[in-house]
């Protein structure tokens, strides 16, 4: 407390004494006990009020002991129960949690994990995924800038997330307690299947299969891919202690249109502890979608070759490069790409008035815009003879189909005649035109739809430079080819845009996220954010129904149907205000990823321990782990001195006492007739 404050308090004492003395003792003839009481009350009241005016700062010191946190994390996934290590893990968890020595040295905190990281309130070993990576990320967030050890009770078998060995902070030691039988059993496993979800009819589609073997002797196995009772592929695969994995590449025929279910399996004459992981089901949607594209041009240009090669990267697209006067019948084609139309295209435009084939018009320096004004109804062109370079600006609100920005703003400019391009109706703009960084206030790449007939317009030549720019950046043409493929896909369909659009897969693996998204558009094809969408899901076998609401997200509605058992389901999405309905089916394949393991992954957990300077222990070594933690001198409790300063005016009881003192003095004086 400052010297000045002390002097003021002393002065307050003097003032309070003087006031009290003058009131009750100065020139007073008789002094009784009542006079002393009143004098004391007056002294206290005056001194208290003066103290409040001075408002001295009261300083209090407290000492706090801060222990090092010790998170104990237990694996709550179903693989723990499948490997019969759940009881052992829970006993270890409770033993460490209640250890008094650990509690004296550490701030013990308990957690559990499966697909998520949670407090250890309900441990039931029913988690459908094991994500040890989520443990590392959450511990980093909870204990920022702290040094602490972690005890991880797990079998180390991870089914989702990043490689956990390298996501834990290497500065904080991790002590895995490995539960389960570490004895090596003979085990054959279909580890992974890579296959496209879609294939085209009458084509062959590739399947990449990864097989693993655990054992101590050489074995010959039979690998099969079957569909129903038909064997589509069969081959012998040999394994040995030195060869424990194999990768197979198989081509399967897409003979039937629709959802096709296949089964990959590996067997041998040897006895296995776990045969569930010998089989893996997969499905492919076979689509019949052959698209004939006529690329019509009266001139030679590098764009023609780039467009043809890009479109034909999709095996279901065939591009015919042809001159306008060489087309006999438009009915031979599904899409017309009209490159820089002029008067020679007259017959094509006139025939297409009846054929109504979707078109993509590309303009450039050789385009006859007066001709285009006569033979199309979407734009009015007022162009000059001057040439101009136009850069692209991406419209993030474009929603005709899903397309990422592949770096359009950094692409080389397209060249076109300078002038004014005015839309005559509703258009969907994907790219806008800019000139040297300034908006030209006109479109560059747009789509239009009129009574089910679809059109696309690209106002500029030299798109081949865009494809080259993509290759220079990514060392492949994939992003550009996908961009053009989605353009062709949009034009390949004559269906008018539906008000209710639902996106979903035809099949899902059990245990994985089953998400269905939907968009509802009003009559102006604007996303209606006030739509009310519900979904009714019906099990095809049991006829049991479940109904859910779709929740609003940034630009769609979404529902998560996790928890559906394996089987076939039909579902109906309905917009309640307009009664718009979408119906389809999906299938949940029988695949439990948590049943794929035979042993705990000791090697991986041991690698994690070494990476963090910790040590891995078996379940029967828990006492050794406790001794290790207790002997580690780097984890010591820290004493902190906390200084709390508070002004006297915050002490409410002083105000209460002053009020009581004044009230008591007044009542005593009133009672004795001194007022």
Oligomer: single chain
Largest sheet: 9 strands, mixed
Beta-strand share of residues: 35-45%
Order of strands, widest sheet = 16-15-17-18-23-22-21-19-20
Q: Can you give the helix content as a percent range?
A: 25-40%
Number of helices: 14
- Total strand segments: 34
What structural category characterises the helix and strand content?
A: alpha/beta
**Poorly predicted ranges:** none
- What is the terminal-to-terminal distance? 41 Å
Q: On the 0-100 scale, what is the average pLDDT?
A: 88
Question: What is the overall shape?
Answer: extended
Calculate Rg over CA atoms: 40 Å
Could you characterize the architecture of this molecule?
The chain has 675 residues and is of the alpha/beta class. 25% of the residues lie in helices and 37% in strands. It has a nine-stranded mixed beta sheet, with helices on one face. The protein has a six-stranded mixed beta sheet with strand order 4-3-2-5-6-33, with helices on both faces. Strands 8-14-13-10-11 form a five-stranded mixed beta sheet, with no helix packed on it. A hairpin with a 2-residue loop joins strand 22 and strand 23. Helix 1 runs antiparallel to helix 2, helix 2 runs antiparallel to helix 14 and helix 10 packs across helix 11. The longest helix has 22 residues. 31% of the residues are buried. The model has no long low-confidence stretch (mean pLDDT 88).
